[in-house]
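[INFO] parsing input record for COKA1 protein
[DEBUG] input buffer:
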Amino acid sequence: GLSQYSSDPRTEWDLSAYSTRDQVLEAVRNLRYKGGNTFTGLALTHVLEQNLKPDAGARLKAEKLVILLTDGKSQDDANLAAQTLKNLGIEIFAIGVKNADEAELKQVASEPLELTVYNVLDFPLLSSLVGRLTRVLCTRIKEKSNKENADIPVNTGPQLSPSDLKISAVTSKSMHLTWSPPLRPPKKYRIVYYPSKGGIPKEVVLDGAVSSLRLSNLTSHTEYLVSVFPIYDTVVGDGLRGVTSTLPLSPPRSLRVSELSHNSMRLSWKAAQGATQYLVLCSAAPDGAED
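[DEBUG] output buffer:
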């Protein structure tokens, strides 16, 4: 499977799209380069949530490998997203080209770094890595496959997936989430939330015995997308998704004007709940600039 990323990751094809080497090579030849920013953390989150799912072709008991190819330093927190993948037993290989940050590659990649981190000065030099990387990847897959696999059921329905996400107690800066746990309790839950009109995703990781969460420090009058993912030892179950908007901030009320003179006036109003300061703007009517 392959995804390209800038500020918005894009799946080019899923794990289940092609079944032969020739088909994959043809797809690579037809690939259109995606320019733009370098939000590596967002890309790794996209791979986990979209590309390593059963309905995208990921087999539950197959070893999971992610090969990151980047030519720049990430503009978001790549280490946090990478750690989430590694905690799930997903192995990350990091390949840097040109302006890639080697320290960041070493943070993102799995151990041992001498096998998982590569850096070259320009794109044509990538061809020099193919032989060694192929051998390392195949060896790692064989090593991991020979270890005893965790007893994970094949069914990903109610066995591994929570249900009935409810969003309540919504205020201008918080909301409360609850859900029904899957039949098999997960090790952890990963909750991801972000504004629907764009913004850096934030995440909270909870113990698998907990099935509720209060999200706080949100932006007022903003629509949020919320996802809840159950995390097991070797697989991520199907996630729950919801959307809701925070309330607008309380406005001041009952504005009154008094004590008028040739160059002054007194304003008074009923306080806005939760306000710590007020900004007062005035302008000469009807079309003067604000002072």
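[INFO] Residues 9 and 43 are 5 Å apart (CA to CA).
[INFO] shutting down worker
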